[in-house]
Amino acid sequence: MSGWRYFVCPMEFNNDSNRFQVDCEPSELFRRISYFSQPDKLFQPNISVSSSMDGVSGAQQQGFQVFRGSTFTISCSIQPQYPGGSFLLSSSTHNYTQPAVNHSAHFLFPAAEPAHQGNYSCVYHVSAFSQDLSSESRLLSVTVTGVRSDPEPFIIRAVVLPLTQLLVTIGLYFYCKVRKHVVVVPLTE
């Protein structure tokens, strides 16, 4: 990257000499700041997903699985190069925009629905030196699956099915027992 570097220098008025005095020696009070005369390529933004209710099952080879009805957040961030900017969270069906705060943005999805599934990317936009710059993240695949908080399927599998199986077994037992003791009496006229 081409550019110039300089130190922020304190300036104070000296009453004895009736002049301003500038001290540009580096010290721990002043940090070096780089400004670039030509905008260079932006870093690639990072994209990630998280859930406050453990609704994200974790990384799969094809992406992330989010349980239907759970709350999840897709976060976009970028290594600082220029102040400000904004993030566009983009999928094939939705676009959301937020300003970059501390070089990141968080997109909240309060209840995951099948419409939220798809491939997402973060695009960072910033204006620097009278130029509009942008950079896109890798794709993040989100799949909405099942209903994590709904206990009905668990109740059916854990209680109703074994109870039905037990009742059928008991019914067959009594049917066979009664049938075993049936005596056939020939009819005579």
TrEMBL record:
Taxonomy, superkingdom: Eukaryota
Positions of transmembrane segments: 154-175
The keyword Membrane belongs to this UniProt entry's keyword annotation: yes
Keywords: Immunoglobulin domain, Membrane, Transmembrane, Transmembrane helix
Domain Immunoglobulin-like beta-sandwich: 65-133
Keyword Zinc appears in the UniProt entry: no
InterPro entries listed in its UniProt record: Ig-like_dom_sf, Ig-like_fold, Immunoglobulin_dom
Name assigned to this protein: Immunoglobulin-like beta-sandwich domain-containing protein
